[in-house]
Design brief:
Layout (H helix, E strand, L loop, with lengths): L7 E5 L3 H14 L3 E6 L7 H12 L9 E6 L6 H15 L2 E6 L2 E3 L1 H13 L6 E5 L15 E4 L7 E4 H4 L16 H7 L4 H15 L7 H10 L3 E5 L4 E3 L35 H11 L4 H14 L1
Parallel strand pairs: 1-2, 1-4, 2-3, 6-9
Antiparallel strand pairs: 4-8, 5-10, 6-8, 7-9
Length: 304
């Protein structure tokens, strides 16, 4: 792999072992600019202070002759605000780049794929971001191209541009009156009533910050801007964040696909939603069905 000249943001917290694994993968492609943002320790978790300090100390391991910038929080912001603040800081420094949380290990080909598509779609405002994660089996793919377009961004290893991120907001209160009408949402989910209710319910939950997360708001922003996400037709990332210490991902979903390498040169599709793939994604991955909505309500009720 040639050296990657796309800036890379690494987001960490209290899992230094996983950050070490990510650093070793980055060492293979040697990005020229690294931005390292680490959230602060929680006051009520004694172990955090040591683990966060150990994570911060790993800034010295980006030692392949690259430029390293750090952004360390003194106190804990949490998953939603911590990631948002980290990405905001990143885009005060650069106009485009790759974003990796500490539980994501990309394949080496992810970096070339991201670099090529950041350049290709830099001026195409229809394209919101470039994702590395594919959750669909080969049987559900409708194209021989290298990637497809979706109305739903995936953030297990992704890349975007500053001018797209500027349209993002963690606060999505009154989201319907801020540009995402019922008609527009219904169109974005392929006219599926169940998917319409699923995403409406999730957006409503996030107006109350019922879950400490930031990625549902990214989906909201993409749909509000009628934007598309590039999704590879092979899975380019491994998520190593499953387990009891994870914030949200306690169990490995059945939709996880084996990591593969992207083949080059890339085969480009037309810039339009792959409706078949999005229908499968909503139904089988997000469980945006009548039964899935009931199960989601029961989970939320139990949590409350």
């Amino acid at each position: 792999m040639k050296r990657i000249d796309v800036p890379v943001l690494v987001l960490g917290f209290n899992r230094p072992d996983r950050v070490r694994m990510l650093i070793e993968r980055l060492r293979a492609v040697k990005p020229e600019r690294i931005f390292f943002a680490v959230d602060g320790p929680r006051t009520h978790v004694e172990a955090d202070r040591k683990l966060v300090a150990e994570t911060q100390s790993l800034a010295d391991q980006f030692n392949w002759g690259c430029e390293v910038s750090t952004h360390f929080q003194e106190s804990n912001l949490g998953c939603a605000e911590g990631v948002t603040v980290g990405i905001n800081w990143f885009f005060t420094q650069v106009s485009e780049g790759i974003i990796l949380e500490d539980d994501v290990i990309p394949s080496e080909s992810f970096f070339q794929y991201s670099a090529e598509l950041l350049e290709k779609y830099r001026l195409d405002q229809r394209v919101w971001c470039i994702s590395g994660s594919n959750r669909l089996p080969a049987s559900e793919l409708s194209s021989e191209c290298s990637y497809r377009f979706s109305a739903i961004p995936q953030v297990w290893g992704w890349a975007t541009w500053r001018d797209r991120w500027e349209n993002y907001s963690l606060d999505i209160q009154r989201w319907r009156s801020k540009g995402l009408s019922n008609r527009q949402l219904f169109e974005a989910v392929g006219y599926s009533p169940a998917a319409f209710l699923y995403w409406s319910a999730n957006f409503e939950l996030m107006t109350k910050m019922a879950v400490d997360t930031w990625d549902i708001q990214l989906v909201n922003a993409a749909m509000r801007n009628q934007a598309l996400a590039v999704i590879p037709n092979v899975n380019l990332v491994e998520n190593i964040g499953w387990g009891t210490d994870a914030t949200h991902t306690k169990e490995v979903p059945r939709s996880i696909q084996q990591v593969e390498s992207m083949q080059f040169p890339l085969r480009h599709p037309s810039v339009e939603v792959d409706s078949k793939a999005d229908r499968y994604l909503n139904k089988s991955v997000y469980q945006a069905t009548t039964l899935g909505l009931v199960q989601q309500f029961l989970r939320y009720r139990k949590k409350k």
